[in-house]
Design brief:
With 124 residues, the chain is mostly beta strands. The protein contains no helices and 11 strands.
């Protein structure tokens, strides 16, 4: 059974940085992908980014500010968030998929296993 656990959320001030971690376990596939999603109260869940062994993608709203990173030996993916804005406030989820990001990376139904979420609050 695949498990994913994200962590690293918290309260930050606008302009500051924060890094989230997503640790995946319970799989033996050579190629896999992690998508990051976020959902603010009253809003739709939206794709933030995706990273696989072959490709990566970012939502327009975070391009230039958020960066994917992967430590494959540790089965860990990081989302480095810079220049945070109040509109980035949301519950952030990581999600696991066996394959690449190229198709439907920002569609939540692409992914097979989800973490519990970690809250990121950007406020003064």
């Amino acid at each position: 059974q695949v498990q994913v656990v994200e962590s690293g959320g918290g309260s930050v001030r606008p302009g500051e940085s924060r890094s989230l971690s997503c640790v995946a376990s319970g799989f033996t596939r050579d190629f896999w992908a992690i998508g990051w999603f976020r959902q603010a109260p009253g809003k739709e869940r939206e794709g933030v980014s995706c990273i696989s062994d072959l490709d990566e993608y970012y939502a327009d709203s975070v391009k230039g500010r958020f960066t994917n990173a992967k430590n494959k030996p540790k089965s860990t993916v990081y989302l480095h968030m810079n220049s945070l804005k109040t509109v980035d406030t949301a519950m952030y989820y990581c999600a696991f998929y066996v394959g690449t990001c190229v198709t439907n990376w920002d569609r939540f139904w692409k992914y097979d296993k989800w973490g519990q979420g970690t809250q990121v609050t950007v406020t003064k």
